[in-house]
Amino acid sequence: MRTGIYALMTTLGLVLGACGGGDGVGSGGTGIAMSSVAIGSVDSLGESPSGSYMVVNGVRFDISHAQVEVEGVSQEDADGQQSLKSGQSTLKPGMTVQVNGTLDTGFSTGTAAHVLSIPELRGAVDAVDAALGRIEVMGARVYVDDETVLDGLSGLAALQVGQIVQVHALPTSSGLMRATRLQLTTATLPSVQPVLWGSVQALDTVARRFQLGRMQIQYAQAAFLNGLEAGMLDNGMPLYVHAAQAPAGNVLAARVLRPAHSLSRQADAPVVLEGVVTNFASAQSFALQGTDIDASGAQITGGRADDIRNGATLEVAGRMSANGVLVAQRIRVRQRAVVDPPSALPPPANTNGNGNAGGNGNGNAGGNGNGNAGGNGNGNAGGNGNGNAGGNGNGNAGGNGNGNAGGNGNGNAGGNGNGNGNSNRG
Fold first, then answer.
1. Residue ranges of the DUF5666 domain (predicted)?
2. Would you say the C-alpha torsion 68, 73, 77, 81 has a positive or negative sign?
3. What total number of domains does the chain contain?
């Protein structure tokens, strides 16, 4: 676990608070030094006699006097320009946020001094698999399900390749992001200014470039925010990349680099955190968003201890220890683990085969695509769909669906595809 790196980024956040301003994507020039007490997605917003509030990770935060800053585009922002908007009205359900302020000892209420929201992705859709609930944006794979808030879309089937979306999401251990909010914007290429969240890989400090997933990030001309400096970059470090224009192929020229959201590391500080489980060792020891969790004494709701595994989405409330571990007092299981089929999204140039009887059969060059009458698992007596190098998929034993190189289903070059009739997870 990369506790040291995340602790460094948290220290930067604490020292600079919400400072950093400038260039349209900063977090304002307020100099707020209050600790970060919550990272998660907005469950709801409302008004009460005492003022405005939002609910994050089960905590009702008073935001009546908070500085609220949202980086992003709305449906009405056709030019796709990055902008930092202020005010409670800019917050929407499903947005991921970092909250600086105070939190009561019972983890039920808090007061926000500063709320910052940045999308994890903004860019053109590369691929859509509505049946499996997957999309791809700038090489990043995103899982969309019933808990994802959709804005501007009636459903995932309405989304088309090439459209510009803004995604708030939680990262998983497999590199798949779990979308909490998916917004279709009216922005168009090439005017859209992309945002990409990820962990630095293959860092080359001489050429001033690194990898974020499939994207090569060139940062020679980039500005650094919130105390981040070029010399602090390290492999495994999570950060946000803002660009001035759409990528050229798989190369994205960074305009701004800023550290990922992080919690206070002050000993005994009460915090709440939402994330997808990574680095799972046991139901008592794992990580969420780079923060190590000690769950040995936690009360679990919304599920059982055996639901805690890599890919499960949890809300954790507890206190930070002196060594930067979050000692959980309360854990809520929000969603069970994501199961990511190996052929969820095809490469753009791949040839697709067809499935049958209620399921999707996936074929590819040199591989077989398998489907069945129930739509789940691999081919059986309910009807097998076979793909071949010519891209023809044939359904039988149920007589379902024939295809060719332009047909239905999804596959990967050199691999096996799997049929699945259900897009929703349990």
1. 40-105, 122-181, 274-331
2. positive
3. 3
